[in-house]
Write a structure and sequence with these properties.
This protein has 231 residues and is an alpha/beta fold. The protein has one domain: Rossmann fold. Helices cover 32% and strands 24% of the residues. It contains seven helices and ten strands. A hairpin with a 2-residue loop joins strand 9 and strand 10. Helix 3 packs parallel to helix 5 and helix 4 packs across helix 5. The radius of gyration is 18 Å and the shape is globular. The mean pLDDT is 93. The structure holds adenosine-5'-triphosphate (ATP) and magnesium ion. Magnesium ion binds next to helix 1.
Length: 231
């Protein structure tokens, strides 16, 4: 049986008086990949921040690796790539951004090695000397994902990981997720990208009225191909 990585029971959270999350239940084991989709503003980003221990739920129970979630203790086992990468960058170079956590956990040399390795996999090795804030939107996405996974976490949260990425570049992200899940890393991915959802062959949940409802989205009826519109 797979070991439990994350368990959420009856999570309720909001920013003001009204809850955004209103009774979220979720379980993840080693190597599980869960994709959360749902309308703009439904609370996907909020859900990831709560599950990662960055926002404290009003009510409910959250367990990480069998223990009540303690955001600080869990930090070394969790990686998160924010929807807006600028919210997480705080180093002067891409290299330092990616190497920061692994260097703190495993020492400078190992941090360098791990940062270079993941930068190669995601195709951002040529950007290592650049300031993160001067990258393109898609390059920032890749760097934020590299920084989230470089230290080998047990659980990774990816918020809209393929935003700004062309199909070939998105493929690198998919390959990385496949490789890491094979090694036991669990993922929670928030996305509007239905192709990503299909490709990951993940457990899919729609976030609706603050709850997670299991099941993939219905395919859209119309497909618009340039130059092939209906007469
Ligand atoms: N820090 C905040 N303070 C107050 N309200 C917030 C905050 N962050 C988000 N919200 C509100 O909470 C709701 C859920 O936002 P959230 O970003 O979680 O949605 P989302 O599903 O990720 O949307 P998107 O698809 O656009 O990424 C929205 O109505 C948003 O305006
Ligand atoms: Mg969001």
């Amino acid at each position: 049986m797979r070991r439990g990585v994350l368990e959420a029971r009856g999570i309720v959270f909001g920013y003001g008086d009204e809850p955004i999350l209103n009774g979220v239940d979720l379980q993840l084991g080693d190597g599980d990949v869960v994709v959360v989709y749902g309308p703009t503003g439904s609370g996907k980003t909020t859900l990831l921040l709560v599950l990662a221990g960055l926002l404290k739920p009003w009510r409910g129970e959250l367990y990480f690796m069998g223990q009540p979630m303690d955001g600080i203790r869990a930090r070394r086992y969790i990686g998160i790539a924010f929807q807006n990468p600028d919210d997480m960058f705080f180093n002067s170079t891409v290299f330092d951004e990616i190497a920061y956590t692994p260097a703190r956990l495993y020492g400078a040399e190992e941090g360098r090695r791990l940062a270079k390795e993941v930068a190669e996999k995601l195709g951002v090795a040529h950007l290592l000397d650049r300031p993160p804030y001067k990258l393109s939107g898609g390059q920032k996405k890749l760097v934020s994902i590299a920084a989230a996974v470089a230290h080998g976490p047990r659980l990774v949260f990816l918020d809209e990981p393929t935003a700004y990425l062309d199909a070939d570049t998105a493929e690198r992200v998919i390959q990385l997720v496949e490789e890491l899940r094979g090694g036991g890393t669990a993922f929670v991915v928030a996305t509007h990208d239905l192709e990503l959802l299909c490709r990951l062959q993940a457990r899919a949940y729609r976030l609706e009225e603050g709850r997670l409802i299991e099941g993939a989205p219905q395919p859209r009826k119309t497909l618009c191909l340039c130059g092939q519109g209906s007469a």
